[in-house]
Sequence to fold (308 residues):
Amino acid sequence: MSDYHIPIMSAEVVSLLRCGPGGTYVDCTLGGGGHSEELLKASSPDGRLIGIDRDREAIDAARKRLTPYGERASFVHSDYKSVKEVLEGEGIAEVDGILADLGVSSWQLDSAGRGFSFMKEGPLDMRMDRSSGETAAELIERLSERELSLILWQYGEEKWAKLIARAIKAQGDIGTTLELAELVSRVVPRKAHPKRIHVATRTFQGLRIAVNEELAGLDRFLIDAISMLRDGGRLAVITFHSLEDRIVKRVFRNMSKPCICPPDLPLCACGKAADVRVVTGKAVSPTVEELERNPRSRSARLRVAEKI
Ligand SMILES: C[S@@+](CC[C@H](N)C(=O)[O-])C[C@H]1O[C@@H](n2cnc3c(N)ncnc32)[C@H](O)[C@@H]1O
Fold:
């Protein structure tokens, strides 16, 4: 089961969440349960863990892996954006620590049938929750060339977005991952192909973020998660690209400000107190040893805030 996904910066997560016996922790992105297992070990013998994932395959894999922890672990198939409702449903008013390890798991990326990989032939699906929502193929079909181009540009940071969107819409009916990857490779001039990554990486990232609405509501989720912490409780977030990291950094910074009055106001009129203290001034990155062990951790950044 450890093949499912290698948890990233797990020692740092356990230590920064100050995970200990008797605590209640929420893993908002359960995946294969790697981080959850570390949280359960560190909170032995009686710590509790609630694991959330929108992917049923992840819930099944984690449930199996975490069987030895018995009733200390509970599993909820849900979107982490409903974290407040999930915890209310479990009868939990506040928790000691929350983790969100954003993005897709290695299992999802490597399973050809899920359609996330430009290296493996599969349906152009890309949904983390296969029980609802539009697939990438359906999204491409529905969007106009301009809308598609905007998605590739904004979410994929793809500078050839216009050209790629035009070619996709001109070809029509792209049903598989390799068809899309080949199209991108054909339309982007060869001399402009990136050296370190596959030329279709950004297109796939943009579509995946759009299909799963990964950025929409991320700020609201962070605010809701912090509201569920006890005083002194901590929220840890691992991001994999600058779009997500920027949102986490901004929300943490805004919530750590005691006053939000315009700077030219002589006296504070808002009366606001800071909600959090940012624990990680600069985002934490994987160590050289971890990068060697797990190259997929390359772009991971960890930020932690403490409720005050
Ligand atoms: C990077 S993996 C987490 C891996 C996990 N930490 C481990 O150790 O195996 C991200 C997981 O979060 C899930 N996920 C992504 N967005 C989600 C959302 N909005 N709500 C719930 N789960 C989500 C994905 O389905 C995936 O399983």
